[in-house]
Description:
This protein has helices spanning about 1-10, 20-30, 45-55, 75-90, 95-110, 135-140, 140-155, 165-170, 185-195, 240-250, 280-290, 295-300, and strands spanning about 215, 225, 305, 315-325, 325-335, 340-345, 355, 365-370. By secondary structure, it is an alpha+beta fold. It is about 35% helix and about 10% strand. The strands form two sheets. It has a six-stranded antiparallel β-sheet. A two-stranded antiparallel ribbon has the order 1-2. It starts with a helix and ends in a 5-residue tail after the last strand.
Amino acid sequence: MRALAAAIGLVCLSPLLLAATAAVAAAGSAGRSTTCNTGFGTDAAAVAKAVEAILGSNGSSSQDVRVEGLELPAEQIPHAKTIVATGISLHVPERGQVVALATAIQESRLRNLDYGDRDSLGLFQQRPSQGWGTPAQIRDPVYASTEFYNALLKVPGWESLTVTQAAQKVQLSGFPNAYAQWEPLARALQQAIVKVLPGGGNPAPGGQPPAAGGCTGGGDFGPIPEGTVPEGYEIPKDAPAKVQSAIRWSMGQLGTMYQWGGTCLASHGPDPMGRCDCSSLTQQSYNAAGITLTRTTYTQVNEGSSMPVSGIKPGDLLFTRPGPNGPEHVAMAIGSAKGTVLAIEAPRTGKPVRIVTQASLGDIIAVRRMVPVP
């Protein structure tokens, strides 16, 4: 496959000559591209306009969007958003996100491919035979991005390397210089995408908590397997109708995987950005009940009425993890079972929406009530 792509690449003219030819050949093994786009001369304003048209909330159509270097922007830019959002959720700095984007552009042209050189798959053309995960895992853009970032962060001094050097340390490509050409486009994408993410790319809406195991503390009824409903729990019948509706909707998201910056509008769908983070879960739960909330923990902590921790009721929003700008996590109380107060949360990257005990949330720094209790 690589030999064929290289042969095709030789007929293309490029100012980079052999370097660009090798880059096209490398991409050809995954994306089957016969074009000679080198990625240079990126128009950052055009990239920003395309990102806004495809990802923005202004209702613009993604039809007729054109970006130099992206042949299918309506497909590619959402994948770029997933890579950036996953990097932010893992607290990877901007430079690391640029490295990841440049790598994915080179390896797959930002397409979630089900083919590649030998057993390579997905956005980063990771290989199951090389320990990157199962084929299904690798084709999950969040998983693939997380694995790339985890590998990058293990590279000593990666921050001091060039983008192409850092990418090569992770990818071990046969074309080690191919990534450099995509740095301008990757940087323009990263800068444009963070502007359409909640909080302008600040990781507060669902920032990383301490690592957790596969079960959450369950008080009197034992551990709660993630994504399940603990024995004896029922939605409180004496809670206001809108609270019951919000809880019922939130429980419909149980078991769906967390995605920082996700909208929670299609958590069971194929697009990772349709999944939930902590504040979009609470926002959309109350939206289903006819109550409008803002998007981030920073703003939700100012909505509704303040309540004491000792007086938590079903439907109350519980804020934890203090940060420099306010609480960085929110969960929703859903009632109790066997004397233990329970909450539902979208916890962090790699974890599903789950039910937890109040105690397992840690110190609650604010409680806000959206629906008055009679």
